[in-house]
Amino acid sequence: MQRLLSVLYIIAAFLTACAGTAEKGDDYPVPSPEKVTIKLDIVRAFDMRLPVISEADFQQILTEAERALTAKFGGVVQFEFTDHGQIPVDELFKDLSYRSSALYQSWIPYKYDIQLGKNMPVFSKPGYVKAVADFLKMYSLESLGKYFPGAVLKDYDQAAELVIDTYQRKVEWLKTLKTPKGESLLIKDQPPRQSFVEWYAMMSAQNQYDIIIANSLIVYDLITSPYPHTVCKHAKAGGASFSSPAREAFGGNSVMINILEDYGNIPGISADYQDTAPEEKNKIIGAILLAHEIGHAYFHIPDVYDHPASCLMNTPGGDVGNPELYKMLTADMTPCPKCKPWVEAKLYSIMADGETNEVKKGDLYMICAGKTAGLMGEELKNFYDQKVYITGLFNKAMAAYKKAGDQDKIAECNEKYYSIFPKK
């Protein structure tokens, strides 16, 4: 029986708290839409070899997510959570038909093989280091240097070499870890539930859930996109925002958060939590994991390395554990000024959703797309998730203009899209 959980109200505080001169998108000022409700389906999918959370823990997580989202973003969004209870995590992977998708097939050569390790053919290809270096260019060398104390980064090739070496060492370390029952944490044959690539492809295909709370070890095994904060900490996924085109609540996205670090009792992974009470763990999960991932999925704010320490989306060095990160976050429970443009861009999309004038609807979607692409920059906007999102906004604009029969706007929409994503 599905049960509607307590509602997260995000009261309109963000724009007031970040008061300043409002930017304009074409002829439209920054919108101030009425409240909207986003209904989310949430499930707990657990590996029963590992500790799980109680119903009380679950409620505390949601409560803290509410507090963090209200304080850090504000706005006009109300999230309603429909609880689908607890299921075995392997139920999510009963249907492996997602493996036939073009996305999954394109990632096969770059899915880390825990048996081959450094002997994977991709590591000997000359273009691999360049691909990683190009990925890392979304970050400044100064911000990357925080992950390699003592190293003076001269260029992105050097940064790529350090990240690759760190990644391989971290995965070898994961192989040595044991569950509280003495079993190997990383299963030799690596079932789908322990692979980030498998999770991503499954979430892209599924149409049941907007949020999944997991407790499995999920190796971050997409080796062409080695996020430094992930690699340098444990080389595992602690949370993620996925492209899930069939899920409308987050505009074609979904979220997974992983409580292994908080509740797994795994030496080396859970060390930061040895003296942490469950209530405090739940607050950390609610803010640092759930609210953070909603920031990705709904507002499309990326992991950032140059925002204030109290920013919900800030991702500090790999030596900073979640308890310390939570202290930094809650030291200043006011909105992050550097997140403000991302929130404002989203407001155009929210207004478009409720607009009845088709031309205005199209304009609002197109403004949101242009502003978001500008915020993402050249490197980030071409990543799979981000390009899917921006393209989706243009598709909505185009559909509105076609419904209005406005040929000039249709031509303008096409021109704008190809100015962001040039034809090859």
Q: Provide a count of the helices.
A: 15
**Averaged pLDDT:** 87
Q: Report the uncertain regions.
A: 1-25
Helix share, percent: 40-55%
Question: What's the helix and strand layout?
Answer:
Layout: E1 3-4, E2 8-9, H1 14-17, E3 24-25, E4 28-29, E5 36-46, H2 55-72, E6 77-88, H3 102-107, H4 126-136, H5 141-145, H6 156-174, H7 196-205, E7 211-214, H8 228-231, E8 239-243, E9 253-258, H9 260-263, H10 278-299, H11 322-330, H12 340-354, H13 358-380, H14 384-404, H15 407-420
Parallel strand pairs: 5-6, 5-7, 7-9
Antiparallel strand pairs: 1-6, 2-6, 3-4, 8-9
Helix pairs in contact: 2-10, 4-6, 10-11, 12-13, 13-14, 13-15, 14-15
Short characterization:
It contains 15 helices and nine strands.
Q: Can you walk me through this structure?
A:
This protein has 15 helices and nine strands. Helix content is 44%, strand content 11%. 45% of the residues are buried. It starts with a strand and ends with a helix. Strand 5, helix 2 (55-72) and strand 6 (77-88) form a beta-alpha-beta unit.
